Amino acid sequence: MADEPAGRTEAYDYELPAELIAARPAARRDASRLLVLDRARRRFTDAAFPALLERLSAGDAVVVNDSRVFPARLLGRKPTGARAEILLVRPESDALQPFAPFDEADTRLWRAMVRPGGKLKPGRTVDIADGFAVEILDSASDGTRLVRLTGDDDPWSLIERHGRVPLPPYIVRDAPDDAEDRERYQTVYAAPAGSVAAPTAGLHFTRETLAAIEARGVRLVSLTLHVGFGTFRPVTADRIDEHEVAPEAFTFSAAAAEALNATRAAGGRVFAVGTTSCRVLETVVAGGGAGGGVLAGGPPEGGPFAPGRGWTDLFIRPPYTFRAVDALVTNFHLPRSSLLMLVAAFAGRALTLEAYAHAIRERYRFYSYGDAMVIT
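RE: above sequence
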């Protein structure tokens, strides 16, 4: 059991001036700043994001989450004319067929989060557009609703046509989203659709950055974790070991496993881009999953890395022994969040909070559209 103070949620709190919350992305993806944190030397270095290349050596591997954000936010009105919002989380058929591409899944039935939650009870309907409505069917203990999409076209086409970018609530817009958001709240390597939030550490990479990484003799490895509401759900329990992360679907291919096993065999390091990539790697590595649950068969017994796909609810928090990840590229996360706790498990709670205090003093930009940190 986690001990004081690291086991208390309040131990992962910090004060952030509101003006440091990035409302817009940097002019260029790679124009963001990079805080370099050396764990062994307990030293911070301020840099620009391209300096990440200087931390990579031939034989290393950089692992990215290639999940694509889909326009999951549906804005509409109740029959009374009052405004309502539906945030689609995952097709309900995922419970039986979690790895079917969205265009092959039954996308009429969804698990969703709704607003206003108290008024959108089973039996209510929200009109999204002419020929497109959402019926509320039931509610679940996790706060989600089972909803049915109805309309004059196939559900996925309706979502693509009328959905909005699911920006985090701390990013305020005059309109729900704009053309810039549709391009920038997405990684340049995004492939299969399925996430309701961007794997934001990857937003800093350009195609030129990726090419430069490979030119250094570094492997680029992709995996998929579809980011759901479990990743960003606040930790409200007093003790962090009382919090649970909702399961999220992942795919880790045979090619990815082979590449990382070759990296390890040659003495190379594994750089995880983002907490989502980190959680998948710690799920699929031999002996992984300590400190949190793993669904759909658990971690491999042979290894170190083995291919697989399943659901992970792995909640990485102090104390935790990392088996898969040697370095972490990550953004600056919200106070009291499971993401901040993962970073604290990797770098140490005290050192992590020192780094955040340094970033605040140096006026780094925080959260999804903000600056980045690499921890080695």
